[in-house]
Amino acid sequence: MKKTYTIDSDEERYIPISLDSLVPGSKIPFEIYTYDGTMYKSLLDKGSTYSYFAQEMIKKQALSRFFIRQANALSFNEYLQSAAKLRNMILDPTFFESRYKEFRDKWFIIDKMVLGSGLPLKVCIGGLRFPVYGELPFSIENESSYKQLLDLNADIAIRKTDIDTYYTYLDNLLDNPEIQDVLIKVRIRREKLKVWCFRVFEEIRNNCLSKDTLLKLYKHITLLIGLIKNDFTVAGKMLFFDVSDIYLYIHSTNVCLMSMMHGHVMNMDDNSLFNLGISAILHDIGRIYIDDDAKEDSHDELQRQIYRSHVLKGKESLEPYMDIPSVAKIVALTHHEREDGSGYLYGLKGDKIHHFSKIIALSDTFERMRVRGYKYPVIKRTQILQEMSKNPQIYDAKLLKDFLKFVAGLSL
Ligand SMILES: [Fe+2]
Ligand SMILES: [Fe+2]
Predict the structure, then answer these.
(1) CA of 108: how far to CAs of 126, 250, 286, in Å?
(2) DSSP string covering 180-224, please?
(3) Which ligand ends up closest to the CA of 337?
(4) Number of independent structural domains in the chain
(5) From ligand 1's centre to the CA of 250, what distance in Å?
C-alpha cells in the first residue's frame, strides 16, 4: 500500500496499539506501522485522516498488528482522551461538510473503471466516502490492488496537481490498440470531457479563460456528438455514474451528455447540438461563486436567495467571452425558469423561455434527483421519471414526453 518501508529490527522502539482505538474521521497525530514478522512498514502517515476508506483498505489487506513509535506514546494517550469527543463530532453534519470541502479542494474525482485497462497510472489515488471523508494515498501497483480499488464503496480521486498526468494517461489509453472495449473507450471520452470541463471552470474562476482552453472544450463536445450519432446505445453508457452532483464538473458533464442525447432524439442538426452542448456544460457556471452552504432547498430564505443568484452570476461571468455563444449566456440565466412561471429568476412562462433552457432543465432536474446530494442513497431511474411526470405543468409537454421516452429506453 505504501512504497516507503522502514526497516528496523529494534522492536523495543515500537509499542502495539489496537486499530479499534482509532476514530474514523480523525487526523492521526503520529505515524502508524504494521509488522509483518520481519520489518515495520509505515501504514498511516502522521497528519493523515483515518477515514472509513482507510479502515476498509486496511481490513482488506488482512493486517492484524499495529504499532506506534514509543516516542509517540504521550501523543497517543492524548489522542485517546479526545477520542470520545471526536466520536461525538462525527455525528455532527457540519463535521462532514468541513471534511468534504477540504477533500474537494485538493482532489479530482475520476472514473475508476478506466483504470482497469492494465496500463498503470503513476499517481497517488485517494478515496472519499460518506459519512467520513478522508484520503489514503494509494498507488496501483498490480492487478490485486486494482481489484481492491474497484471493490471499494468510495469515490476515487487523484490530486488536482496530477490532472495533466491523468489526461495524458487517458490519451495513451485511447491510442493503445490493445484496448478495444467500446464501453471503456466511451468512458475515457467522457473522462476527457470532464477534465476539460474542470479546466474551463478553473480558468473562468480565475478570470483567465483562454481561447485555446475553450476551443479544446468545443472539440470534445464535437467528438461526443459524433459518438452519440454513431452509436446511441453505447453513448448511453456514459450516463448514470454513481457519483455526486456536489462536484460541479461531474454534474455539468452529465447534464451536457444527457441534453445532447435528448437533442439527438429530437433530430436536432449538428450546429444546434453543438450549441446545446456548450450551453449545458456551462449552465451552472454561476455556482462556482456560490458558497456551499447556500442550497436550493435550504431552510433559510437568505441562503435560498444566494443559491438562486447563481443564474445571474453565471450569465455575468460568461458575458465577457465573445467566443461563447450568446445562447449559452441565456441558458445560464434562465435554466431554472419553468413552463408555468413557477421558476426563477424572473418567473418567465412558455414562449418567453429559450428552447435550450427547457431541454437542459429536464436533464438538470433528472441529474439532481438522481444523486440528491451525497448523503442519500441513489434513487432508481424509473422512480425519478415517475417523480418528474407528477409535475408535467412545469415542463414543455412535448419535451417532457420525448425525455421520459428517451431516458426510459436507454439500456444501461
Ligand atoms: Fe442551476
Ligand atoms: Fe445544474
Answers:
(1) 9, 10, 20
(2) --HHHHHHHHHHHHHHHHHHHHHHHHTT---HHHHHHHHHHHHHH
(3) 1
(4) 2
(5) 14
Task: Give the H or E element holding residue 14.
Answer: strand 14-17
Place of cell 445532447: 260
**Of 25, 60, 91, which residue sits at a domain end?**
91
pLDDT for position 145: 61
User: What pLDDT, on the 0 to 100 scale, is given for residue 60?
Assistant: 75
**pTM more than 0.85:** no
The model's pLDDT over 215-274, given as tens digits with 9 standing for 90+, comes to: 999 999 999 999 999 999 999 988 876 565 568 999 999 999 999 999 999 999 999 999
Average of per-residue pLDDT across 30-46: 86
Q: Give the end of a domain, one of 38, 69, 91.
A: 91
Rounded to the nearest angstrom, the distance between the alpha carbon of 283 and the centre of ligand 2 is 6
Q: What is the pLDDT of residue 132?
A: 44
Q: Which residues contact residue 184 at a Cβ distance below 8 angstroms, ignoring those fewer than 6 apart?
A: 113, 114, 116, 117, 173
C-alpha 231 to ligand 2 mean position (Å)? 26
Burial of 398 (C-beta count, 10 Å sphere; 0-12/13-18/19+): exposed
Tell me which of 348 and 101 has the higher pLDDT.
348
Note down the domain range covering 81. Answer: 5-91
Give the C-alpha separation, 142 to 304, whole Å: 48
Give the count of alpha carbons within 13 A of 308, CB side only. 15
Residues 358 and 222 in one domain: yes
Pairing of strands 32-35, 26-27: unpaired
Q: Are 134 and 50 spatial neighbours (Cβ–Cβ below 8 Å)?
A: yes
